[in-house]
Amino acid sequence: MKKNKAKNIPSFRSLNDLIEFFDSYDLGEYLDDMPEVHFEVDIKRRVHLFALDEKIADKLFQIAKHKRITSEALINAWMKEKIQDQTL
């Protein structure tokens, strides 16, 4: 049986072009051209998702942008403050 010869990945003008390309072509044909990567996964971290009212979320993003921090950092800081103020 004849082995498939690896192909070179073409250049793309945008991320959307790349996504559209691999929606149509088999990534396996380009594996030899892919760079080797190493990474670690921290499986101990837990993320909790909460739904926010759209208007609150929009305002939160504006404030975080103004403070030049992520919205996640802003939410966590505010929640820590609010929790410290509570007595059980």
Brief overview:
By secondary structure, the protein is mainly α. Helices cover 44% and strands 0% of the residues.
Can you characterise this structure?
- The protein is an all-alpha fold and 88 residues long.
- It has two domains: 7-39, no CATH class; 40-88.
- The protein has three helices and no strands.
- The chain has helices spanning 15-24, 54-67, 71-85.
- The radius of gyration is 22 Å and the shape is elongated.
- The chain starts with 14 loop residues before the first helix and ends with a helix.
- The mean pLDDT is 86.
| Largest β-sheet summary | none
How much of the residues is beta strand, in percent?
Answer: under 5%
Helix content: 40-55%
- DSSP summary: helix tally: 3
**C-alpha geometry:** elongated
Radius of gyration over all CA atoms, rounded: 22 Å
Q: Domains counted in the coordinates: how many? A: 2
List how many beta strands DSSP finds: 0
Order of helices and strands: HHH
Taking the alpha carbons of the first and last residues, their distance comes to: 72 Å
Low-confidence stretches: none
What's the rounded overall pLDDT mean? 86
Give the tags.
44% helix; mainly alpha; 2 domains; 3 helices; 88 residues; 0% strand
Write the layout of secondary structure elements.
Blueprint: H1 15-24, H2 54-67, H3 71-85
